[in-house]
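Following up on my earlier message about (2R)-2,3-dihydroxypropanoic acid. Here are the inputs again, as you asked, copied directly from the submission form:
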Amino acid sequence: MASRSARSRPKVIVTRRLPQAVEARMAELFDVELNLSDTPMSEAALADAASRCDVLVPTVTDRIDAAVFAGAGGRLKLCANFGVGVDHIDLAAARAAEVMVTNTPGVLTDDTADMVMALILSVPRRLAEGEKLVRAGEWQGWSPTGMLGHRITGKRLGIVGMGRIGRAVATRARAFGLTIHYHNRHRLPDALEQDIEATWWDNLDAMLARVDIITLNCPHTPETHHLIGASQFAIMQRHAYIINAARGEIVETNALCEALAAGRIAGAGLDVFEQEPAVDPRLLAAPGVVLLPHMGSATFEGRQAMGEKVIANIRVWHDGHRPPDQVLEGWA
Ligand code: DGY
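Thanks, got it. Here's what our run produced:
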């Protein structure tokens, strides 16, 4: 690959505000256009940006579809996503337009796994309800039967998707005394499986019928779109909880709302939604549900590291090498 370094600094357009230090470093290195208002860009604004830059830095709130790539007119060469999930980017259209796509894996694994663990604890132990009770001034004091939830220790956790984040969740969950079950396209190597004493289930439904808490940690792809729908809720145990800090689209929202309303499952912990930032009003009203605003990776350290990865990917690409975090179609 020929070096691009000899040419002028690449024109980089960033679609949202990034941590201050990341923006400052980008301004030193690149001919960068920042979005100082932080307003999400319309499709027209994204298409316009794509036609005026060598590198677009989008994030999960941008829909980078075929129209954006088609409208880029050949100048855009790299789509350096700020984030690990790339389901908002049409990878086939990127390939057709000869635009390379990169993401930021690894640096948000622990933060996201912490948030999953927080939800695993919060939902069965009714943390959000208890907090609201105290704030509302309605707490009448300790009582033997007050605010009872369910014990975590000894329960079966079913992890759907055993990539980096799934494994980090498993490690945490083991420390809380949960037994680990997982469904993944590929079985983990023996040593890893033994390390976390995990049981692999080839069949997702068979696992769902047996576990007490389900956490979704797979990427959103055409294969995982609405992976959990009415028939999955029908086979889960009535006392089961579902946790989703991956992507809202993995769960069919309507089926989830109906399962909660019918008491088909006991509760849900959700950090992501199908139509973000809109949240189905039935979820707002449902008991036993903890709702968070897509904040799994929201730590200062994590967002800084994500920015550094974006910068590294752009620099390596600009030097004429393959960026470390190139996303290959079909792998996401
Ligand atoms: C990601 O990186 O995909 C998160 O969902 C947003 O940080």
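One observation from looking it over: The domain at 11-107+299-318 is CATH 3.40.50.720 (Rossmann fold). Hope that helps, and feel free to reply on this thread.
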